[in-house]
# Entry
Amino acid sequence: MDYMQPVVIELGDRLENPGDSFSVADRLPLESYESGEKQFMLDDGVSYDVVLTNAGDGILVTGIVRAAATGECDRCLEPARFDIAGEIEEYFLFQEPEDAEAYEDGYEMVGPERTIDLSGAIWDALVMDTPFVVLCRPDCAGLCPTCGANLNEGPCGCAEASQQAWVESDDNPFAALRNLKLD
Ligand SMILES: [Zn+2]
Ligand SMILES: [Zn+2]
# Structure
């Protein structure tokens, strides 16, 4: 497990007035992450590109998180690659609100030195955009449940064999016809 380090942005004397904004883009050297108990490797870390805006009572951060990830195909267990393009929308308040429930989507706090930590928002965007089902290709044929062969590499013969077995078994509704003697 690769933990995400804090991603601290120092506001300094920027964003002093409502409506002020500036953008920040960078790449984090994260090598892997976990989501839904699965592990994913990252080709080239995680890139983020966000705009910070003074929205009056806090800093609104909006933007996008991108990454190229590789996991294990849920059907055939071979490597499966996919691109992440997750949206960030996070609110960092200057002061604890009197009515926290007014912020339905939650919020974070601007730090005492006028810093904000984007790591939570970046992590959330990464995980939210990770597909629930990861496939090496949309039509992955998966593994044969009988012999375990990768069916993307061609038929293993089990399907034909079980078809033949079914034809010869008494489960076949036409099995009775085999013994039917026609005069
Ligand atoms: Zn596959
Ligand atoms: Zn098979």
